[in-house]
């Protein structure tokens, strides 16, 4: 449905009826247990609205907070957000510093949010966290420490993340275990590899659905191993514009797929 048609629906009062019917429909089906999202389009949204990139990033961060509420409504157990790629860290210093300030501020806000304790949500940064500023590493450590015993819900925030880097780091961990004699080459299987990935703490590391906004139709290395049988949904909406109804449509798309899982 186009945005023009939606605007007409809203003015006619039919939008709420359509939204309610869609929500009832998806609640009658299987809700994905693990949803991973590539938060794409902040800068292009800012350009579209003749704003600075910083405004786009802050608007996108506001959308993330709304997303967590929507996922709570649908009882989505695991959420993995691609917030900052390893490649993003090569941007000009001014924009990168602004991103760091934003990430730090929102992580501090999350640390003080009673919802993560009410929902027993484990919060963890995944990626090459050691490359991030000390201020971000500090709050991630506090979040991890304060939620490490929670296992009802999981929020993973991919920062300084690269899928190839994840595989390299996993191989190095496995190589170290072989070198010190705690692992034999013959023992390496899928479970060993998965236990050395950034997502090894999750009860389900593989996302049921990976969603990317902004219209781009690629994963950009996101969760390369874990995405083998994930359902991919691409939405032609910039991340700051993402709404609850977009999430519901993505879930409906997921529910209509025939998931054979390679069988």
Question: How do the strands and helices of this protein lay out in sequence?
Answer:
Elements: H1 3-12, H2 14-27, E1 34-38, H3 42-48, H4 53-73, E2 78-85, H5 93-111, H6 115-118, E3 121-126, H7 134-147, E4 153-161, H8 163-179, H9 190-194, E5 209-212, E6 231-234, H10 244-256
Parallel strand pairs: 1-2, 1-5, 2-4, 3-4, 5-6
Helix pairs in contact: 2-10, 3-4, 4-5, 5-7
How would you describe this protein?
With 263 residues, this protein is an alpha/beta fold. The protein is built from 10 helices and 6 strands; from the N terminus they run H-H-E-H-H-E-H-H-E-H-E-H-H-E-E-H. It has helices at residues 3-12, 14-27, 42-48, 53-73, 93-111, 115-118, 134-147, 163-179, 190-194, 244-256, and strands spanning 34-38, 78-85, 121-126, 153-161, 209-212, 231-234. A 6-stranded parallel β-sheet has the order 3-4-2-1-5-6, sandwiched between helices. Strand 3 (121-126), helix 7 and strand 4 form a beta-alpha-beta unit. Helix 4 (53-73) packs parallel to helix 5 and helix 5 runs parallel beside helix 7 (134-147). The longest helix is centred in the first third of the chain and has 21 residues, at 53-73. The radius of gyration is 19 Å and the shape is globular. The two termini are 33 Å apart. The relative contact order is 0.16.
